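Fold this complex.
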Amino acid sequence: MSTHTTESHAGRFPRLATLLAFLAATPFVWSQHEFDDAADERGPIRISGNENAFGYSPAAMMAMMESLGNINRYARDEAAAFVEAISAKERVPSDYIITTPGSGPVLVMTALAYAAPGKNMITVTPGYLQLARAFEQAGGEVKSIPLTDDHAHDLDAMKEAIDEDTVIVYICNPNNPTGTIVDPDKLRAFIRSVPRDILVFVDEAYLELADGGLEANSMIGMVRQGRNVLVSRTFSKVYGMAGLRAGYGIAPPEVLAKLRPFHLGGPNLLACVGATAALGDEAAFAENVERYRATREMVTEALDDMGVKYADAHGSFVFIHTGVPIERFQARMEERNILVGRPFPPMLDWCRVSIGTEEEMMTFLRVFREIMTEEGRLASR
Amino acid sequence: MSTHTTESHAGRFPRLATLLAFLAATPFVWSQHEFDDAADERGPIRISGNENAFGYSPAAMMAMMESLGNINRYARDEAAAFVEAISAKERVPSDYIITTPGSGPVLVMTALAYAAPGKNMITVTPGYLQLARAFEQAGGEVKSIPLTDDHAHDLDAMKEAIDEDTVIVYICNPNNPTGTIVDPDKLRAFIRSVPRDILVFVDEAYLELADGGLEANSMIGMVRQGRNVLVSRTFSKVYGMAGLRAGYGIAPPEVLAKLRPFHLGGPNLLACVGATAALGDEAAFAENVERYRATREMVTEALDDMGVKYADAHGSFVFIHTGVPIERFQARMEERNILVGRPFPPMLDWCRVSIGTEEEMMTFLRVFREIMTEEGRLASR
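Structure:
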C-alpha cells in the first residue's frame, strides 16, 4: 500500500511480494458453502447473533494480509486513511467522525457521557439494549416505549415521553430485533420536533439492507445540517467483519467532545486497513446486499407460504411469530443443531432468526416447518 | 486451528490450506533490515514511540493469516483461548483477567473508575501520563512526585504523599521515559505498607526487558496474594504487535468489577489469535528480548565511550542527557531523518530514544555524535 512505503524501516516481511503474487493467482471464493461437503464435521448453524455468513470483501482480506508485516507499529497513516474514507463516504468533515472497534463503543460512550442520576433517555421495547443498559448502570433512568401494533417505533409516544430531564432519544433503525424501519420523512420531522438540547441517536447498524438503503433512509443529512444527531455505523453486519471490530459515529464535534473522555482507542491497524478497503470494494458490498435481500426474501416467502406471521424485515434477520415460547423453541432448534436468537421480552413467543447462507436457511426452513407442525402451529402437509 | 473447526459454516476460504502449505515452505524473515538495500526509499528512522523495530512471532502471523477467513464472526472461542493462555502464563484464575485492545484501556478505565472530585492519585514526574491525564480529566487531583537523583521512583516520597483521599498509586516499572526500575523487594514492601483500600497500579509494559525479566521483577505475586494491586501488560512492546492492540490487566475480581462499566470490548479476533500464538512462541519472544538487550547495550556502551550520561535503561528505550534543549535536539535529528522522543518535562535537556534495529541504532549513534560535537557537548575526535 502506498501509505506504507515510507515505513520500510518497520518489520516488513520481504517475501510478501511473492506471497501476494501467489494470492493474486488464487481466486478467493467468497463464501464456502458450496465446497463444504463434510457436513458431519460442521458445527451448528449459527443464525443467532446477526453475523454475516456470506463473508467479506476479498480486497479487504488482501489489504490486511499485506499489512500483517506492519503491525509492530501503531496505526498512524492507516487510521488517518480510514477517517478520510469515511469522510468521503458520508460527506462530513473529519471532526464529525469518531472511529471505534465496532459501533458498540459509540453506544456505550454516549451512555457514559450523558447519563446521570435524575436524567433519562427514551428507547423502545423490544429494542437493542446496549446503550440503555449502560445508561441505567451509570445512574440514569430508561423510558422504554412499547412498539406499535406493527412492531415499529411509536414516534408519537416517544415524543410524548420526553420531559425536561431527557438527554437522549435512541432509535435503532431498522429496529433490532423486529427489523422494522421508520419512514425517513417522519423520522426527520420527529428529529426537528425534539428540543435541540436532546441528542437523537440513530443506530443505523443494519440500514444498508433496508429498502432504498442508506440513500433513502439515513439520517446523516440531519447531522450535516448541524442537528443534535448522532448516526452510528458498523462493519460487523452487511460488511461481514464482526470479528474485526470496526465502526464509527458521526455527529457534530461538540457532541463527539463529550464522548472522547470515554474513548479507549480506534480500531486496530488491520481493522483500519480492512474497513478502508471494504469501503472501496463496491462489488463486494453490492453482492452482500443482494445476497442478504434475496435470502431474506426466500425466508419471508416461505413463511408466507406457511401462513406464519413475521415483522416487516429490513435488517439481516427476520423476527418470526412462532407462537411457541422462545426458550422451548430455541431448545428444539438447538436439538437440531441450529442456534436461533435469544428471548426478546415482552415478545416471548417470537424468535429472531439471522439470515445465514442460502443453504443454511433452506435447512432452517425445513426444520422450522417440522417443529412448527409438531408443536401444532402448522397443519401437517 | 482446532478451535475453529466447529465454525465451518462461517465464511471460510477453502484455498487456505493451499496458501498455508505455500507459506510453510516460505521461510519468513523475522526482520527485514538485512534485505533493505533501497536506502533512498526509506522513510525516517522512527525511534520516537517505543515501537518494536524487530518484528513479531511468525507463528502469530501464520495464526492470524489462517483466521482471516473467520472474521465475519464475533470472537468467541478466540477470546476464551486468549484468556486461558493468559491464565496459564500468569497463574491466576480467569476472573482475575480483563483483556483490552492494548493496555492503555486498562489505564484509562482505572482512572475513570476511581477518579472523583476530592480524590487524588500519586504518580511520578517525569512519568507515563495516560492514567494521570484521564484521572485529572475525570475531576481527580494528581500528585506528581519528583524522581530520585538517579531518575527512579522515590517510594518514600510517594508513601509520604498518601493521604485519606488517595485512591491510586501508579508505578510504571520500568518507568517511562527514564527506563529505571524499582527493586522488587522494596516495591513489595511498599505495597504492603500502603493502606489496603488504595489500589497500587503497576504498569509492567516494558518489564520483560529488565534485568531478570518478569520472573525477578513482576508484582503479579502480590495480586495472587490477594493484595489490592493491578498489574497491566501489553503486546505492543517486546511482543512487537503495537498496531494489533492486545493487552490485559490482572487484579482481584472486585477491582476489575469497578473497571467493567468502562470496558468497550476486548481485542479483536485477529488480536486474540495473534497474541495467543505469540504467548506460545517462546523462541520468538526470547529472540526479541535478546536483540533488545544486545542493541540497548550497544547504545549504552557507545554513550559510555562518549562520556554521555543516561538513565539506567531497563526498557525498550534509553533516556539520554544530551544537554541540548529537547526541541532543538529533536529538530536537528529530524533534519537527519531520525525521529526521537518528545519532551518530558521537567527533564528538558534529555531525550528518550527507542531501541530500533541494530542498523538504525548505528546510524543514530553516528548522527548523535556529529550533532553533539557541533553543539559543543562533545570534543571533536
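Residues 1-15, 25-40 of chain B have pLDDT under 50 and may be disordered.
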